[in-house]
Write a structure and sequence with these properties.
By secondary structure, this protein is an alpha+beta fold. Helices cover 26% and strands 35% of the residues. This is Biphenyl 2,3-dioxygenase.
Amino acid sequence: MQLTITATPSQQDLDEVKAGLISFNAQYINIDEIKPIALFFTDDNGKKLAGLTGSTAGNWLRIDMLWVSDTLRGQGVGGQLIAAAEQEARARGCCYAQVDTASFQARPFYEKQGYQLCFSLDNYPRVHQRHYLTKSLKV
């Protein structure tokens, strides 16, 4: 057995670890319920101006990334992405949503969308905090 440490894993390395984890998890959850979700705003040429990516798993929506270009910030685009993702998540049977964000990012934005702080990690990274928020999607 050999330990390898790398800062540049190959796509195959990542795929093998993911496959191993999926195989293990399949003993406990229905992995077929895990589905990607992505929403985008694009310009007339197809260039992305804003987007949200994540997944739904069982009864949870997980928001991984939310980005709005500087030209669209403050115009409600982020809120539209969240609302549309939550609507799709409800259609997939989700009752809850989860997101994490850094202290210099978007905690007030998510709270304005109805998300509530569950916990924070201090000094992540170094001088910031990482905030974990959830929201009930039940109507």
